[in-house]
Design a protein that fits this description.
Helix content is 48%, strand content 10%. It is α+β, with helices and mostly antiparallel strands. The protein has a 5-stranded mixed β-sheet. A hairpin with a 2-residue loop joins strand 1 and strand 2. Helix 5 (107-117) packs parallel to helix 21 and helix 16 crosses helix 18. It is globular, with a radius of gyration of 22 Å. The structure holds protoporphyrin IX containing FE.
C-alpha cells in the first residue's frame, strides 16, 4: 500500500516557494531533507516536484528504461540561450541525438580533447601545467605569499579558457606555447580569462545569465513584469554570448583546420541514418553548452578540493608527498597522471561531499511506486539531490559527512553499491565531459600540490555555499606560498 509523500505546509497560489532559499536553493533543499528525510514533495507555482535524498532512491531513479531526464523550469530558461544544445535538449529532440553521436559517444573525440589539454605541446606537459596554472604562476606566484586569492574565480578562468581552447580552439590563430610564456601576447586570447584583472566579460555574462534563469523560475509573472532592468540585462547577456559563439563559428568557417576538436566534429559529422548535419544554430547552441557545462563544474570541483585539502592538513601533506614522489621534484609529465591514486581518491571524495552539479531531474515514463511505498504519477519531476544521497550513512557509514579520501582507495571505490557515487549524472544523459574534466583537474591540482602550500585567509573559515547553475564554496579566500621543491 502506498503512503503519502511528506510535504511542507504550503500557502495558496505560490505553494512551497517560500521554503526555498532564493539565493542559494541548495541550502533550502538541505534543510528540508533534514526535516523530511529520504523523500518530500514541493509545489512551486503550480508545479509539483519530488526530492529524493537517499542513496537507495537515487539507485532506483537511475534507470533509463523507467525514468527520463526532465529539462526543469530553470533549464527551460537556460534554453533561451542554448536551445536544444546537449545539456538542455528535450529527450526527443533530433539535434540531441546528432550532437551526442558526434561528440559524446565517441571516446576518440574526448581522448583527442585530452591530448589538447596537453595542447600546444604534445610531447610533454610542463608547458601545459604552465598554461593550466597560469593563474597560479602569474597571479599566485607573482603577487607573493600574502596575496589574497579567490580560488573559485581563478579556477573559473582556468577552466573556461581550457574548455574554450580545447573544444573549439578559441584563441588567436598562431597563438602558440610561447604566448603563454610571454604574457603580453596572451592579451590577444579572446576569452582572455587569464590576463584580465577583472573576471572576463564572457564569464560575468554567463554567471549573471544563469543566476537570473533560476530567479525567474520562482518569480510570479506579475513580479517579473515589474523588473524591466533585470529582463534587459538578461537579454543583453544572452545576445552577447550568442555573438561570441557566432564569431567562433564564423572564424572557423573562414579559417578551416583539420583539427579534431569538438567544433570540427560538429561541423563535419552527420546522422548516419538521415545524413542530416547540425545546423549553424545547433552548433552555436552546443558551443555555448560546452562553455557553460564545461567550466563552472570543473572550477567548482577544484574549489571544493581546495577547501577540503586546507581543512585537512594531513590529507594535503599526503597528497604533496605522493606528487613529490612521483615527479621527483621535476615538472609534471603526462605519464605521471596515472600514478597518483591518492589524488584520484581526493578528487572522488571532494565530488562526493561537494557535488558541484548537486541535483538532476528525471520523471517516470509510467506511474511508479518508489521505495516500495511512494506512488509517483508518470511525468512528475523527481530531483535526485546528490548533495544528500552521497552523504547517506546507509552507504557511507556514520562518518558520511567527513572528508576521508581513504574510503575511495584500495579497491573500495570499485566495490561501492551501483550508482552510490554519481556526480557526473547517469546513463544516456550523463556527462560527456567527464574524462576531460578528470584529466584537467588531475593536472591542475597535481601542479598546485607540487608548487604551493595553501592556507585559509581566515583560519576559522567554514564551508558556505553559493549557487548558480552549479554550487561552489562562498567567500573562500586563500593564500598560496610557493614551495621549495625537493631536488
Ligand atoms: C551533463 C556533471 C564537466 C559537458 C552532466 C550531468 C552532470 C554533470 C551531473 C548530468 C546532468 C543531468 O542529468 O541533467 C559534471 C561535473 C563536471 C562536468 C561534476 C566536472 C567536474 C563537464 C565538462 C563538459 C561537460 C568539462 C564539456 C566538455 C556536459 C554536457 C552534458 C553534461 C554537454 C549533457 C549531456 C547530455 O544530456 O547528453 N554533467 N560535468 N561537463 N555535461 Fe558535465
Amino acid at each position: 500500500m502506498s503512503v503519502p509523500i511528506p510535504q511542507p505546509p504550503k500557502v495558496p497560489f505560490i505553494g512551497n516557494v517560500r521554503q526555498l532559499d532564493r539565493d542559494v536553493p541548495i541550502n533550502g533543499f538541505i534543510l528540508l531533507a533534514k526535516q523530511y528525510g529520504e523523500i518530500y514533495k514541493l509545489e512551486l507555482l503550480g508545479r509539483t516536484m519530488i526530492c529524493a535524498n537517499s542513496s537507495a532512491l537515487q539507485q532506483e531513479l537511475s534507470d533509463d528504461a523507467k525514468f527520463r531526464k526532465v529539462v526543469g523550469a530553470a533549464l527551460v530558461q537556460v534554453r533561451n540561450l542554448v536551445g536544444d544544445g546537449l545539456f538542455t535538449a528535450f529527450n526527443e529532440e533530433e539535434n540531441w541525438g546528432i550532437a551526442r553521436m558526434s561528440t559524446g559517444s565517441s571516446a576518440a573525440i574526448f581522448d583527442n580533447l585530452l591530448c589538447q589539454i596537453v595542447f600546444l605541446c604534445p610531447l610533454s606537459i610542463p608547458s601545459t601545467s604552465e598554461i593550466c596554472l597560469k593563474t597560479c604562476k602569474i597571479c599566485w606566484e607573482r603577487f607573493g605569499p600574502e596575496h589574497v586569492i579567490d580560488p573559485s574565480e581563478d579556477f573559473t578562468r582556468v577552466a573556461l579558457d581550457t574548455i574554450a581552447l580545447c573544444s573549439m580552439e578559441y584563441r588567436c590563430a598562431k597563438l602558440a606555447l610561447i604566448c603563454f610564456v610571454h604574457l603580453k601576447a596572451l592579451t590577444q586570447f579572446r576569452l582572455n580569462s587569464f590576463y584580465t584583472d577583472d573576471q572576463p566579460k564572457f564569464a560575468v555574462a554567463m554567471t549573471d545569465f544563469l543566476k537570473e534563469c533560476f530567479l525567474r523560475v520562482n518569480r510570479p509573472a506579475l513580479v517579473q513584469a515589474m523588473m524591466p532592468s533585470a529582463t534587459r540585462k538578461y537579454e543583453e547577456d544572452r545576445k552577447y554570448m550568442t555573438s561570441v559563439a557566432e564569431q567562433i563559428l564564423n572564424e572557423r568557417r573562414a579559417n578551416p583546420t583539420d583539427k579534431k576538436d569538438l567544433l570540427n566534429t560538429m561541423l563535419n559529422s552527420a546522422d548516419p541514418k538521415t545524413g542530416r548535419h547540425l545546423s549553424d544554430q545547433a552548433i552555436i547552441n552546443n558551443l555555448l553548452t560546452f562553455l557553460i557545462a564545461g567550466h563552472e563544474t570543473s572550477s567548482g570541483m577544484m574549489s571544493f578540493m581546495t577547501y577540503y585539502l586546507i581543512k585537512n592538513p594531513e590529507t594535503w601533506r599526503k597528497l604533496q608527498n605522493e606528487v613529490d614522489e612521483v615527479t621527483g621534484g621535476q615538472p609534471l609529465q603526462i605519464q605521471d597522471l596515472s600514478k597518483l591514486p591518492y589524488l584520484q581518491a581526493v578528487m572522488r571524495e571532494s565530488l562526493r561531499l561537494g557535488p558541484t552539479a548537486p541535483a538532476r531531474a528525471v520523471a517516470p515514463v509510467e506511474d511508479v511506486v518508489l521505495g516500495g511505498k511512494y506512488f509517483v504519477k508518470a511525468g512528475t519531476p523527481c530531483l535526485i539531490q546528490a548533495w544528500m544521497t552521497q552523504r547517506d550513512p546507509a552507504v557511507w557509514g556514520p562518518d558520511a559527512n567527513e572528508f576521508r579520501p581513504e574510503r575511495m582507495l584500495d579497491g573500495k571505490f570499485e566495490t561501492l553499491p551501483p550508482n552510490a557515487w554519481q556526480p557526473f549524472g547517469f546513463g544516456t544523459r550523463g556527462c560527456i565531459g567527464r574524462s576531460f574534466a578528470w584529466q584537467e583537474v588531475l593536472l591542475i591540482m597535481a601542479s598546485v600540490a607540487q608548487k604551493f602550500d595553501l592556507s585559509f585567509v581566515d583560519p576559522s573559515y567554514n564551508l558556505e555555499l553559493q549557487m548558480g547553475l552549479t554550487v561552489k564554496p562562498k567567500d573562500l579566500r586563500i593564500k598560496a606560498k610557493p614551495r621549495v621543491l625537493k631536488p
